[in-house]
Amino acid sequence: QINDVYEIAPIEAGKVGGVARIATIKKDLKANNPNTYLLMAGDFLSPSVYNSLMFEGKRIRGRQMVESLNAAGLDIAGFGNHEFDISEAELQSRMNESAFDWISSNSYHKTKDAIVPFVKTTSTGMERLPAYQIKTFKDADGTTVKVGFMGVNIPFNKATYVVYTDPLESAEKIYNSIKDSCDAIIAITHQQEADDIILAQRLPGLALVIGGHEHDMRYDKVGEVIVSKAHANARSAYILNLQINKKTGRNKVSSRLQMVDETIRLDSATNLVVQKWMGIAEKNYASIGFDAKNIILNSGEPLDAREASVRSSKTNFTRMVVAAMEKAAPASQVSIVNSGSIRLDDILQAPVTQYDIIRALPFGGSIMEVDMKGSVLKQILDAGVKNLGTGGFLQY
């Protein structure tokens, strides 16, 4: 299981993460057990430094991630809220390009005429994204089991082309409709941990709730249901072993959190894809006046831009960001930025390059100067404190 992956290449000076390392983990596991699936619990098409770059006359908008995950052998993906950051046409292109399956149990396509399931166009025609899938697996002795998969997403992104049904009600409806046809059911979710726990409580017959959204590792056991989330940006992968006993009707799950670091080799085929897109990015930057490799800071102190840090405290990196804003708006007395706009999730080691800054702040946008009363400023800062641990936590 992986979730919330925005970088195709390793981070922290190449020491951590990387889709090519995820590919190696999957291949090694599959060599020992052919019934191995790689699942993505949402948020991988956006945001990314690549999304504003051009390739073949179009914005890249997640194309680099789909091609990398295709190479890595991703089997099933569910929507996250950030999949709907990109346009309707761009999302359609990414789904069409994907070699993996998508499951959408509560996110639907709003067209001019109707609300319908999203579709994926392949070489064999057009197919609707299913609300669930039932996969048949065979053991070495020929025993077959059927595992159901469903996927729900937090109704957060209000893109005009998407409509949501209630995640819990949708999951409950699908579970009840397929439970008699399955030996085990897995929910792929992208929502708050508290909602995953409620889902597990409402559906105690689930085998697994494979989740995303928090960007940090989570592991809960709710009755007999395991709820798991890996670290963002493939810093880790959850390896979950589901054992199904058809005689007793009882299932057993064992799990381990695999840290994705230098001890795991880069899969060569996947790494070729990653390097291709890294080269495309560098050419893009050069065409608009940036030099991705240009060193702008030789600080000997590592700069902490990890999400777990910037969403809960001030760091040396966030102090630099707000100081830069104040320099750009010298008449201002205070500068404020929400920590969710800092997407690096990395520790920057010297030397710091232009590429590091671009990927740290990929959303773009302008700095706005406003006059406000002190009482309003206090309300804003108080709201930031209440958002501790989330992207709404304010840096100032």
Report on this model:
- With 396 residues, the protein is of the alpha/beta class.
- It folds into 2 domains: 12-259, Purple Acid Phosphatase, chain A, domain 2 (4-Layer Sandwich); 291-395, 5'-Nucleotidase, C-terminal domain (5'-nucleotidase,  domain 2, Alpha-Beta Complex), CATH 3.90.780.
- The chain has 10 helices and 24 strands.
- It has helices at residues 19-32, 63-72, 88-97, 167-178, 193-202, 268-287, 307-310, 316-328, 354-360, 374-386, and strands at 39-40, 54-55, 58-59, 76-78, 101-103, 107-110, 115-116, 119-122, 125-128, 132-138, 144-153, 162-164, 184-190, 208-211, 218-222, 225-229, 236-244, 251-259, 295-297, 303-304, 337-338, 347-348, 352-353, 394-395.
- It has a 6-stranded mixed beta sheet with strand order 10-11-13-14-16-15, with helices on one face.
- The two termini are 35 Å apart.
In short:
By secondary structure, the chain is α/β, with parallel strands linked by helices. It has ten helices and 24 strands.
